[in-house]
Design a protein that fits this description.
The protein is mainly α and about 475 residues long. Helix content is about 70%, strand content about 0%. It has a two-stranded antiparallel sheet with strand order 1-2. About 25% of the residues are buried.
Length: about 475
């Protein structure tokens, strides 16, 4: 039973879902088999560990049928029935989350049963609900289309040939739904092609672009946002597309759900990152644009996840601020937004980000106690923190402590199996740091170390280490 579909589903249930499913499985409307209830109760007691011996089919069978000979088909049938109930329960719970869809189904029932007044009342409720919806996204316009479809069907059922059947509204809502989804999918496809050798046949894309040039849909911001996002990919050299995308985002970001708003801002982030990755003198401009976006999103709670500031965003905002050497903003941000980070990650991210700032400001004496007091949990965050510690020991010329630290750092890297494919840059950093402190007063050997570092492709903090060696040449 350990690898059964039933167990896979049950393991996903949280405490509230277990409680609700217990009521569901006992409802005679959904289940009249007492043995299915007994199987559920047994597995409920075995959860969440589901010890293999306890849930072996033979063991479960003896519990359910103590006086019968073991027949695997009987237990398989009960498992299949209970599995079907779990699936039915999960679908039912999902449907409860979408009152709009349920109301549409109710309107359909009223129409089919010729309950005209109730149908009209149901449609009125739907229209009122639509007006209150925050997000004018593709799903909003799809629901508009479904409402007008229901109205059209009602008119046709009643043979009201003198009543116009909402054909313009049907066409408009369907256009909006299609355009938003089409633009979004095309953006994702073209963006994906940058990382993987995949060719997509994006039918009607040229026609859609031409249509939007002539008809920009200013009353539907989602269309404009995804259109300009797509343009930043397809006509990257035209900066006006990014400018218009940014304007639309900052003007209309409150008109969408938070997850949709975040996805929309990612298109603007991606443009800035692509510009920063290009060679030339525009990297500061690209980082400044990205920094401006981050500031706006943070100040307007765009980055919140379940009420908390994303740890990824907290770290990234500091990274960009440090890149731009806006140290005052970074320090204020680290302290001001510390309490906005979820408690389980707060202290380690606060200490780590503050250490990064102190390193850039050459406040080296304050870094070591700051980093040594935190349990990092995430391996890559710990790697980064240990790298800062290595740099700090070297900057402070604490060579005895550094030598011991290099040993422990090397052991740490080799013990972490998850780093198997990413060890080389850090091991090279350790190797060349050892060489540097061993030969820092021998210019001929330092010159060779300098050249070796230059020729090494996989090396963390390569620029910093080259600069340290150069100081002694």
């Amino acid at each position: 039973m350990q690898n059964s579909k039933l167990l896979q589903l049950l393991k996903t249930l949280d405490k509230t879902e277990w409680r609700l499913f217990s009521k569901f499985v006992r409802s005679p409307y959904f289940n009249e088999q007492e043995k299915v209830i007994a199987l559920f109760d047994y597995l409920y007691e075995a959860a969440p560990r589901f010890a293999p011996k306890r849930i072996a089919k033979e063991t479960v069978f003896r519990q359910l049928f103590p006086n019968a000979l073991y027949k695997s088909i009987r237990i398989r049938q009960l498992m299949s029935s209970l599995c079907g109930l779990v699936e039915e329960f999960l679908v039912y719970e999902e449907q409860k989350k979408e009152p709009q869809q349920n109301q549409l189904q109710l309107a359909k029932v009223y129409r089919q049963r010729s309950l005209t007044k109730l149908f009209d009342r149901s449609i009125k409720v739907l229209r009122q609900s639509q007006q209150k919806r925050l997000s004018k996204n593709a799903e909003y316009f799809f629901d508009e289309w479904r409402i007008y479809t229901a109205l059209k069907q009602q008119i046709e059922d009643q043979h009201k040939r003198n009543v116009e059947p909402f054909l313009q509204e049907l066409s408009d809502s369907l256009d909006a739904f299609y355009l938003i989804h089409k633009l979004k999918i095309c953006y994702e496809a073209l963006n994906y092609q940058r990382f993987a050798p995949k060719e997509y046949q994006l039918n009607l894309l040229k026609e859609v672009q031409q249509h939007l040039k002539e008809n920009p849909y200013p009353h539907i911001p989602a269309i404009g946002i995804f259109y300009q996002g797509l343009n930043t990919l397809m006509e990257e050299e035209k900066e006006e597309h990014f400018g218009e995308l940014k304007r639309l985002l900052m003007t209309h970001f409150k008109e969408f759900d938070i997850s949709e708003t975040q996805d929309m801002f990612v298109m603007a982030h991606n443009y800035c990152i692509r510009q920063a990755n290009k060679s030339g003198g525009e990297i500061d401009t690209a980082f400044r644009r990205l920094f401006d976006l981050y500031q706006f999103e943070i100040e307007n709670d765009v980055f919140l996840e379940e009420g908390w500031l994303s740890p990824f965003v907290y770290k990234n905002a500091v990274t960009i601020g440090l890149q731009l050497q806006d140290y005052e903003w970074v320090e204020n941000f680290i302290h001001q937004y510390k309490e906005r980070v979820a408690e389980d990650a707060r202290e380690r991210l606060f200490s780590y980000n503050l250490a990064r700032l102190y390193f850039m400001k050459k406040r080296f004496e304050e870094i070591i106690p700051l980093l040594n007091r935190v349990d990092y949990k995430e391996v890559f965050l710990e790697l980064s923190a240990k790298t800062i510690l290595l740099q700090t020991y070297l900057e402070l010329e604490e060579y005895t402590a550094l030598s011991a630290f290099l040993d422990s750092f090397s052991v740490f890297i080799h013990r972490k199996k998850s780093l198997k494919s990413r060890r080389k840059p850090y091991l090279n950093l350790i190797k060349y740091t050892r060489k540097f402190i061993s030969y820092q007063h021998q210019s001929d050997k330092l010159q060779k170390i300098f050249e070796d570092i230059q020729a090494t492709s996989f090396l963390t903090e390569k620029g910093w280490l080259l600069e340290k060696v150069r100081q002694y040449l």
